[in-house]
Each structure stands twice: as structure tokens, then as C-alpha cells.
Specification:
The chain is α+β, with helices and mostly antiparallel strands. It has six helices and eight strands. A hairpin with a 5-residue loop joins β3 and β4.
């Protein structure tokens, strides 16, 4: 399961080096080749979801089983058609496809925030991430207190 917050830097091609802790989870056998991820737009243009290819395949099967034919078509047309895949290169880098970098307003050679979210990751532009955290903290003070009491 993915957890933690990581600051990564995009290179001039829109690639970033996966932190070793995340790379170890994606490639437990140590083999980087043929390990892919699926990028998924969120409804709001503040972040992207990133699923390991195996997790995305499972999610697709689960979703298909839960949706009727019309819902399934909508899901495929409006969600899945907007996804993009990328493979880790031998150096452990992942390319964020250009259309998705534009979706969350990322420039080449800038930092990103990678956030572990159990079975997937999120990619944020740093100022949007800080803004989200500040707003969430203010909105969910009582809930945060209950969550912290669990630990």
C-alpha cells in the first residue's frame, strides 16, 4: 500500500524519478522493465490519480461488474477514455503525458507532490497541494481530531 508524501522534480520531458519506497512497491522483484501505471484525471483539475497497471485492471473488472450497460458505457466514454498509461524506464522514471500535465497546470522542470493513497498515488502541483491541505484542515477539524485519536 502506498503512503507518504514525496516531492519530485519533473525533467524537461515531463518525467520524474519515483522515490525508492514507491518504486519498491511497484517493482517488488526489482525489475523496472514492463512496470506500468495508469493516469486518471480527477473531476477537478488539481491532481491526477496514478494506479499501478495491475490495480487498474482489478478496478476495471470490479467496476464493470457493478455497473449496468448504460453506466458502463458512460464510465468508458467519460472516465476511461481520458486515461493515459506510462511505463517506468530503466532509471525508474515515469513520464506524465503532456495532456495530463496541462490538466493540472504542470510545467516542465517543476516540482510535483506525490501522495500515497492506499492502492493508488496522487500527483499534485505543490501550491494546489498546500491550498488543499489548508482548506481541508479548516473544514474538517472535528473529523481530523477523531482520525488522530485512532492512532
Amino acid at each position: 500500500m502506498f503512503s507518504g508524501e514525496y516531492v519530485c522534480k519533473l525533467d524537461e520531458k515531463g518525467r520524474f524519478l519515483l522515490p525508492s519506497a514507491i518504486r519498491d512497491l511497484l517493482c517488488p522483484d526489482g525489475q523496472v522493465s514492463e512496470k506500468g501505471v495508469v493516469f486518471l484525471k480527477r473531476a477537478d483539475p488539481t491532481s491526477l490519480k496514478v494506479y499501478p497497471l495491475s490495480e487498474w485492471t482489478n478496478l476495471m473488472k470490479q467496476t464493470r461488474a457493478k455497473l449496468d450497460e448504460e453506466q458502463s458505457r458512460l464510465f468508458m466514454h467519460f472516465v476511461v477514455s481520458e486515461t493515459a498509461t506510462s511505463e517506468l524506464d530503466k532509471a525508474g522514471r515515469i513520464l506524465i503525458p503532456g495532456k495530463l500535465r496541462k490538466h493540472i497546470n504542470l510545467a516542465d522542470d517543476q516540482e510535483i507532490v506525490l501522495v500515497g493513497m492506499y492502492e493508488h498515488l496522487e500527483i499534485w502541483e505543490p501550491s494546489n497541494w498546500r491550498r488543499y491541505l489548508a482548506q481541508a484542515e479548516n473544514r474538517h477539524e472535528v473529523s481530523m481530531s477523531k482520525i488522530m485519536d485512532l492512532l
